[in-house]
Amino acid sequence: MIDKGYVLTMERYNAWQNNQIVDIVKAMDEDALWRDHKAFFGSIMHTLNHLLWADTLWMSRFCSDVDLPDVPGSESTNYMATRGEWQAARFRLDGRIRIWGETLSNLDLAGEMTWYSGGMQRDFTQPVALCITHMFNHQTHHRGQVHAMLTASGQSAPTTDIVFMPEDA
Question: What's the pTM value of the predicted model, to 2 decimals?
Fold first, then answer.
């Protein structure tokens, strides 16, 4: 389904996208970040918090040194209380995702993984490759929502086309 090259490309894309968003969010008014845009998670920060929470959750399943998020999924939109906390946690996690991708082998992408879903209150077993693909797809989906909210807020939204990703991203 996927190989290490896919993971390396997507972890670079993830970091590139998040770095662009950080640059935009740093310059925004606090009220604009938390304003309800009637999006699925409401505000830009609520959506960014949910995305960080979900990435942390998935990475805790892939890597034994990443702790489960300390809040339940129902509170994922408030995962980090401030923009600064979110930015620092996002930077750390993106670095961990990069290290994880670089140390994977194609064999690590084979087989299945089992985890307990607190939201669904049951165990799940899925192919590892599908879980990894889902994590990256989930990121892209929610960053698309952030892109729309940034545009609606009058911000210059980041470049999202993967074909324009710099080689050094």
Answer: 0.96
